[in-house]
């Protein structure tokens, strides 16, 4: 203890070499790293040294498919190594015994059955093998939180039970004893010799028949730095180099460096995954807050087009079948537009980790509001997607080193329905839904109604947050200035926790001033009890007021600093897009609009729409039904579901990386 906390014996015994506070801290850090390195080296020695074996034998292990596989099991202090064969290694996995419990399991079959499990149903597997392997040999899938094991006979099974009990409770003592005594066993040694050595060890340490252990040995084996604390190891490496520079290049520091290099694992080979190539979005349009960015002064030429359009419609009519002029189009698809809500998906990552249900709801509401301030300059409407059109993009989370994937498809043309799916399993959330776009004409105004809902799921909690959307309202079509606003009341509800939020998007009153533009008000409730009030503007600041204390504070404000911290969006490389992906499908129309060539834009738009009508007629003549590529519709509820949805909680020891290929979101796993 004096060495660990106060420096070496020489430092203590020599009064003339008094250390300053800074130097003393350096010595303490150095001793701390040496002690940690000693523990790591001790663990590595037990894993890699063939002489350090408690038991080794063939055992049958039941996989997740309920079938049994015969595997070579090597029990070492603190870990159970599993191989396909004893000779050439073929590592399958490493079980960390420090958090495991052991119990005998009744069975009708021959032999002796027992279960090794984590009492809280967490993963029992290490993320690397004894030689730094990142991926184990292929066998049938094994459970993540437990193993059901069968020995050949009852005597063998009970011997394994005793050995595992010892390895569970006395790993530190076993490591020291076996390394010190230098037991010489090979991985190929027979089961009998392993048993003899095991019982010899029991006698040597006077622990047979469950005698009391010293308190220090009852602690579970906690040092998992070798397997999981990569950042800590890298930080220690940096600190050691800086400390060595401050203390001088002594022989001791040189030997430390060489030992550290010898003890480190070999870096695993890079994961070979064929995934879609994404490129960072080069240009993004962000309209200014307030009414100015939502108004459009229509030229005389375009006014005549509007009058021509109005001759086709009457008040109350649905505009979904009306061909709109291209001058009001935003040069991107509606499927792309729906992705605007995920530039702050990191708020959902934070919400997934939030333990308090009320704070979790507040973070969800904050994320919901963050999707509205991104708007084009002027009054613009995105393209109506073509049936079968798809759109893919993703956002990279630098803090969690994860990715949020967005997949959308136009699943119906009449009525126009867009289905979407968002997934970030590593951060613990996914979101799915479908939107039926309707348009209503009221004479001098029209409304674009987004009928449908989104369902946000926190995978580790089994919580669903169901939410609706406001409608877009355009006024000033015949007279006045054309202005776009958001209106309606939206709800966000979580049935499991009982929390809900209601937000009203308010239209500007007839005699309202500039401050009354884009106003919202809302409530956060638990059951019927109102907990907080929301007030502000959906494109600028929103405040929250605690109902009990009356204290108000800023809840959300998309300042320039917040906008700079938006997650970068990545879209699929143009060359890898198929013909029905939004960017490639609408490329000619987009180019014409950007070149301000409305005539060409109208012609190219007509070509796409005419091709869609022709395909629909051909299917009708043949009696064929349209089949969606990425989504299926529930025949009972009518809801649309992503075909490749994976809503399992992320397993950090088994799940390696989430990626996307050809519209399917997949996970690379270790076992």
UniProtKB/TrEMBL annotation:
Region described as Disordered: 1-32, 213-272
Record flagged with keyword Endoplasmic reticulum: yes
Statement: the UniProt record of this protein carries the keyword Aminoacyl-tRNA synthetase: no
Places the protein is found: Endoplasmic reticulum membrane
Record field: compositional bias (Basic and acidic residues): 1-12, 20-32, 215-263
GO molecular function term, any single one: cholesterol binding
PH domain sequence ranges: 52-169
Pfam name, any one: Oxysterol_BP
Topology class, membrane: Single-pass membrane protein
Cellular compartments per GO CC: cortical endoplasmic reticulum; cytosol; endoplasmic reticulum membrane
Keyword terms, alphabetized: Endoplasmic reticulum, Lipid transport, Lipid-binding, Membrane, Phosphoprotein, Transmembrane, Transmembrane helix, Transport
Any Gene Ontology biological process: lipid transport
Family: Belongs to the OSBP family.
Official protein name in the record: Oxysterol-binding protein
Species the sequence originates in: Manacus vitellinus (golden-collared manakin)
């Amino acid at each position: 203890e004096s060495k660990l906390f106060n420096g070496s014996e020489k430092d203590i015994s020599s009064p003339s070499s008094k250390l300053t506070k800074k130097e003393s801290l350096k010595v303490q850090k150095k001793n701390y790293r040496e002690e940690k390195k000693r523990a790591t080296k001790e663990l590595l020695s037990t894993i890699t040294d063939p002489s350090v074996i408690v038991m080794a034998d063939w055992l049958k292990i039941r996989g997740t498919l309920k079938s049994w596989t015969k595997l070579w099991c090597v029990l070492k202090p603190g870990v159970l190594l599993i191989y396909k064969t004893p000779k050439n290694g073929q590592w399958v996995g490493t079980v960390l015994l420090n958090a495991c419990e052991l119990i005998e399991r009744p069975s009708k079959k021959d032999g002796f059955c027992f279960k090794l499990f984590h009492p809280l149903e967490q993963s029992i597997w290490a993320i690397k093998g004894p030689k730094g392997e990142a991926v184990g040999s292929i066998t049938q899938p094994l459970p993540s939180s437990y193993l059901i094991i069968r020995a050949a006979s009852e005597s063998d099974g009970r011997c394994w039970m005793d050995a595992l009990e010892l390895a569970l409770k006395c790993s530190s003592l076993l490591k020291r004893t076996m390394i010190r005594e230098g037991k010489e066993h090979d991985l190929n040694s027979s089961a009998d010799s392993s048993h003899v050595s095991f019982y010899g060890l029991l006698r040597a340490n006077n622990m047979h028949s469950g005698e009391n252990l010293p308190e220090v040995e009852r602690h579970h084996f906690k040092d998992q730095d070798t397997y999981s604390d990569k950042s800590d190891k890298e930080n220690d490496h940096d600190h050691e180099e800086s400390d060595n520079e401050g203390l001088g290049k002594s022989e001791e520091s040189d030997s430390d460096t060489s030992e550290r290099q010898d003890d480190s694992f070999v870096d695993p080979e890079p994961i070979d995954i064929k995934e879609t190539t994404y490129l960072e979005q080069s240009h993004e349009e962000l309209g200014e807050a307030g009414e100015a960015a939502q108004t459009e002064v229509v030229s005389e030429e375009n006014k005549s087009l509007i009058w021509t359009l109005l001759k086709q419609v009457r008040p109350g009519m649905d505009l979904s079948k009306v061909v709109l002029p291209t001058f009001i189009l935003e040069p991107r698809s509606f499927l792309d537009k729906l992705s605007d809500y995920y530039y702050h998906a990191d708020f959902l990552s934070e919400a997934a980790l939030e333990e308090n249900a009320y704070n979790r709801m507040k973070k969800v509401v904050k994320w919901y509001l963050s999707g509205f301030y991104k708007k084009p300059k002027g009054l613009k409407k995105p393209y109506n997607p073509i049936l079968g059109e798809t759109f893919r993009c993703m956002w990279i989370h630098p803090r969690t080193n994860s990715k949020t994937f967005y997949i959308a498809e136009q699943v119906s043309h009449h009525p126009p329905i867009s289905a979407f799916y968002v997934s970030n399993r590593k951060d613990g959330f996914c979101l799915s839904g479908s939107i039926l776009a309707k348009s209503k004409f009221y004479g001098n105004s029209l409304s674009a109604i987004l009928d449908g809902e989104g369902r946000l799921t926190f995978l580790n909690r089994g919580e669903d947050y169901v939410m609706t959307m406001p409608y877009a309202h355009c006024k000033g079509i015949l007279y006045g200035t054309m202005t776009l606003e958001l209106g309606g009341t939206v709800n966000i509800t979580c049935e499991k926790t009982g929390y809900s939020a209601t937000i009203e998007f308010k239209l500007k009153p007839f005699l309202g001033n500039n401050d009354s533009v884009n106003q919202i008000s809302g409530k956060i409730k638990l059951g019927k009890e109102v907990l907080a009030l929301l007030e502000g503007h959906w494109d600028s600041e929103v405040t929250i007021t605690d109902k009990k204390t009356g204290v108000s504070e800023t809840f959300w404000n998309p300042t320039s600093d917040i906008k700079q911290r938006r997650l970068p969006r990545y879209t699929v490389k143009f060359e890898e897009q198929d013909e029905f992906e939004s960017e490639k499908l609408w490329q000619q129309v987009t180019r014409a609009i950007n070149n301000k060539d409305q005539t060409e834009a109208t012609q190219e738009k007509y070509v796409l729409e005419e091709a869609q009508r022709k395909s629909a007629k051909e299917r009708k003549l043949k009696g064929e039904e349209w089949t969606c590529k990425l989504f299926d519709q529930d025949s009972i509820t009518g809801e649309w579901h992503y075909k490749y949805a994976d809503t399992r909680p992320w397993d950090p020891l088994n799940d390696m990386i989430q990626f996307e290929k050809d519209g399917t979101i997949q996970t690379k796993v270790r076992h």
